[in-house]
Amino acid sequence: GAVVSQHPSWVICKSGTSVKIECRSLDFQATTMFWYRQFPKQSLMLMATSNEGSKATYEQGVEKDKFLINHASLTLSTLTVTSAHPEDSSFYICSAMGGRATDTQYFGPGTRLTVL
Amino acid sequence: GENVEQHPSTLSVQEGDSAVIKCTYSDSASNYFPWYKQELGKRPQLIIDIRSNVGEKKDQRIAVTLNKTAKHFSLHITETQPEDSAVYFCAASFGFGNEKLTFGTGTRLTIIP
């Protein structure tokens, strides 16, 4: 149980384009999802917390107009990187929690974004 | 906010020996401490966690200890095997109602056959 998927697993795009990443909880309902960014050989940096049906809460220094998060259902959250630039190239990972019964986060497999 | 420090950054251990990774946290209100294992290019996987009402927890070759007074917790891996080679992250959160995780900087563990 507690499986989280992400799509796509990798994406290459041109500078200035937008990219959407999906995060799905496959076998549980996730009231809360988190989006992280991880640079090579570094730790996970929380970008935002996403609750179903409400606006995401962004961490300090994360541009909410650039990283659009939508948590439209209890099993799906999306991250859209708008007007991507090479410095946005990174490994983006989501995690999901199964509601009040647990505070454990289960991670998706990550999406490697390369902006040319 | 919470700050989590992790040591060492790299650790090499002979196969069969034990490995210990230590973390300290800054906010005494933190009460949930998970450990994640991440292999190259893969997702972090929860290997063990502990809550503040418990001082130690074991799961086969893996154990975690927590000292709330000193605000530090440690991961212990015994009888290490080559497949234990990975990056390990500790994390801390305030638990239910505020589950945002703050991660340590990671420890690259290498098991030498």
Beginning-to-end CA distance, first to last residue of chain A: 37 Å
The pair of chains with the biggest contact is:
A-B, 21 and 22 residues
What's the order of the H and E elements of chain A?
EEEEEEEEEEE
Gross morphology of chain A: globular
Structural shape of chain B = globular
Description:
Chain A is globular and about 40 Å long. In chain A, strands 2, 4, 5, 6, 9, 10 and 11 form a seven-stranded mixed sheet that branches. In chain A, strands 1-3-8-7 form a four-stranded antiparallel sheet, with no helix packed on it. Helices cover 0% and strands 53% of the residues of chain A. Chain A has strands spanning 4-7, 10-13, 19-25, 32-38, 44-51, 57-58, 67-73, 76-81, 90-97, 105-107, 111-115. Chain B is mostly beta strands and 113 residues long. Helices cover 0% and strands 54% of the residues of chain B. In chain B, strands 2, 4, 5, 9, 10 and 11 form a six-stranded mixed sheet that branches. Chain B is globular and about 40 Å long. The termini of chain B are far apart. The model of chain B has no long low-confidence stretch (mean pLDDT 94). Chain A binds chain B through residues 4, 32, 34, 42-46, 49, 93, 97, 100, 103-110, 112, and chain B through 32, 34, 36, 41-46, 49, 89, 93, 95-96, 99-106.
